[in-house]
Amino acid sequence: MKVLTVNVGRPRPNPWKGLKVTGIDKRPVDGPVAVAAPGPKGTGAVGLAGDRVYDVKNHGGSDQAVYAYAREDLDGWEAELGRPLENGVFGENLTTLDLDVSGALIGERWRVGPDVVLEVSCPRIPCGTFQGWLERDGWIKQFTRAAVPGAYLRVIEPGDIRAADPVEIVHRPAHDVTVALTFRAMTREPGLLPRLLVADALPLDIRELIRRRTAQV
After folding, report:
1. Residue 100's closest CA among 76, 134, 65?
2. Pairing of strands 94-97, 66-70
3. Using one digit for the tens of pLDDT, what is the confidence trace for 188-201?
4. pTM (2 d.p.)
5. What is the rounded CA–CA span in Å between residue 134 and residue 211?
6. Are 29 and 46 a contacting pair, CB within 8 Å?
7. What pLDDT is attached to residue 60?
8. How far, in Å, CA of 150 to CA of 73, rounded?
């Protein structure tokens, strides 16, 4: 298991969401990149030095410090979409190899390289910017049906990461709540929501959302 590329965003116009700028255009970078917890959502800060988000209401902050997506899943989308997909094209900071990102458990911890420890926090939920960026009508529904969302991660121990860094799973919590299961529960299968509450590492806002939705059932 390893990091194939570390990807940092380039600001570009965002005509798809009523915002002037988006950071979804992530490109691989050479050399080490400093990673640290960015603090609360609302400032645009994320975990990687030189990167940021511009939809500060919905993205960024310590619970969404780093976004990872598996190269194997990008390959699957290449076949389905009939087009090449470069590392970083889904807006991911880390493109991984031999790591089941969407199958990771909420609260699972990864050591990346010699210093950095990241914790799986929640799935990525697709938005209009993502659909517009890929220039594919119906992409949000297609991505949601597939339930291979990739994972947002917190920074537990800061440091530098670089392409080819090994990834080691150093902790797996004692529950079965995966990133993919969480995504399915939050999107198309609300009957799964009660299962998520055993995952203490879910962000507080998601836990509160689950409780509200569960109380309405």
Report:
1. 76
2. parallel
3. 999 999 999 999 99
4. 0.95
5. 33
6. no
7. 94
8. 9
